[in-house]
Design a protein that fits this description.
This protein is of the alpha/beta class. The chain folds into 2 domains: 6-130 and 308-328, NAD(P)-binding Rossmann-like Domain (Rossmann fold, 3-Layer(aba) Sandwich), CATH 3.40.50; 133-305, Dihydrodipicolinate Reductase, domain 2, CATH 3.30.360. The chain contains 9 helices and 14 strands. The strands form 2 sheets. It has an 8-stranded mixed sheet with strand order 8-9-10-7-11-12-13-14, covered by helices on one side. A 6-stranded parallel sheet has the order 3-2-1-4-5-6, with helices on both faces. Helix 4 (82-91) runs parallel beside helix 5 (106-118) and helix 5 (106-118) packs antiparallel against helix 9.
Length: 346
């Protein structure tokens, strides 16, 4: 039996709500239907109405939240408004889809989790880059064991921009910690495969003209000993690889999100037994070891077809079919714990 489309009301019709959410939803018109939109700016309401002529238009978010036709409240307004909007939406008893960053602080994240547990509807988090093809394929390669025991992973997103919009201003909830931060911290926590034991971080303003950080470094060490090195910057001119994975039997480098370069020991090659020696090595730096390597370059192509917009398909499956949503509230709260720790580090 075909499941009926979920009726969506979008709060915030800017770069996320209009530029991403509308297009992604309309591409899935058998699963979702936009029935309402809300924004405080008339120009954005008008633009939304042109794209969705049958949808109701609201200036006050309270009116959209109370609209009986809306089943799913999609929150895409500015970051500082996320928590209060989500709390209002949860009180309505409806399902809520919350854009990243889900809030500004760890305390707010815990408040959202508590409210969600008491609410009739569910709170879903839009950590959509969990479904990037490169990230999914990377996890598949790590899990295959071909790289051996992975001990360090580097994640980078670099660029150079003298950015000057509200996302460069602290009082507006700006900064890379709230922009790329939730995505790569989420990736890092997933790849860590262990609770965080230690955190190092540093933030700077390099090229952006506001007061919020546009360059950051976060190093997470898991209880399992694995290191995740995250670097996000709007102030780097020559970009580093987006992924670098180091294992005991091989490495992986990705200059972009389309291709992986791998070099690893041939699994069929049997390593000879070697022992360390205290004897005088002469002029050598150890005895040469003949190893058989496999080197290849492969296109990103995970076993499962996916993209960041696939999050909507998971959302539909959860709401209509009762299938567990792959991003848990606890995971989202932990992302905010790390971000909060970095933001408040002196």
């Amino acid at each position: 039996m075909r499941k009926k489309a979920i009726k969506v009301g979008i709060i915030g019709l800017g770069r996320a709500g209009y530029g991403m959410h509308c297009k992604e939803i309309n591409a899935r018109n058998s699963k979702f239907k936009i029935v309402a939109g809300c924004d405080i700016l008339e120009s954005k309401r008008d633009r939304f109405a042109e794209l969705n002529p049958k949808a109701k238009i609201y200036k006050d978010l309270k009116d959209l939240i109370s609209d009986p036709e809306v089943e799913l409240i999609d929150i895409a307004n500015r970051t500082p408004d996320h928590t209060k909007t989500a709390l209002m939406a949860l009180k309505s008893g409806k399902d809520v889809f919350l854009e990243k960053p889900i809030c500004e602080t760890y305390a707010e994240a815990k408040k959202l989790r508590t409210a969600s547990k008491r609410a009739k509807g569910n709170l879903y988090l839009r950590h959509n880059r969990r479904f990037e093809a490169a990230f999914v394929h990377l996890k598949e390669i790590i899990c295959s064991g071909v790289l051996g025991d992975v001990y360090e992973i580097k994640l980078s997103r670099h660029g150079y921009s003298r950015r000057n919009d509200w996302q460069t201003i602290k009082s507006c909830g700006g900064g890379q910690l709230g922009n790329w931060g939730p995505h790569l911290v989420d990736h890092g926590l997933q790849l860590l495969e262990s609770p965080v034991k230690e955190t190092f971080s540093d933030t700077k303003v390099i090229a952006a003209v506001g007061d919020a950080e546009d360059h950051l470094k976060i190093i997470l060490k898991g209880k399992n000993g694995r290191i995740i090195d995250i670097e996000i910057s709007g102030g780097v001119i020559l970009k580093s690889p987006v992924y670098a994975v180091y294992g005991t039997k091989g490495s992986l480098i990705a200059g972009d999100e389309n291709t992986f370069k791998l070099k690893y020991l041939d699994p069929k090659f049997k390593l000879s037994k070697r022992t360390a020696s205290k004897a005088d090595p002469g002029d050598s730096f150890g005895t040469p070891d003949e190893l058989k390597w496999i080197e290849k370059e492969i296109a990103v192509s995970p076993k499962q077809k996916c993209s960041p917009s696939s999050i909507w398909d998971h959302l539909f499956s959860s709401i209509r079919k009762g299938i567990e949503f792959p991003i848990t509230l606890d995971q989202g709260v932990e992302v905010m714990r790390v971000i909060d720790e970095v933001r408040n580090r002196k």
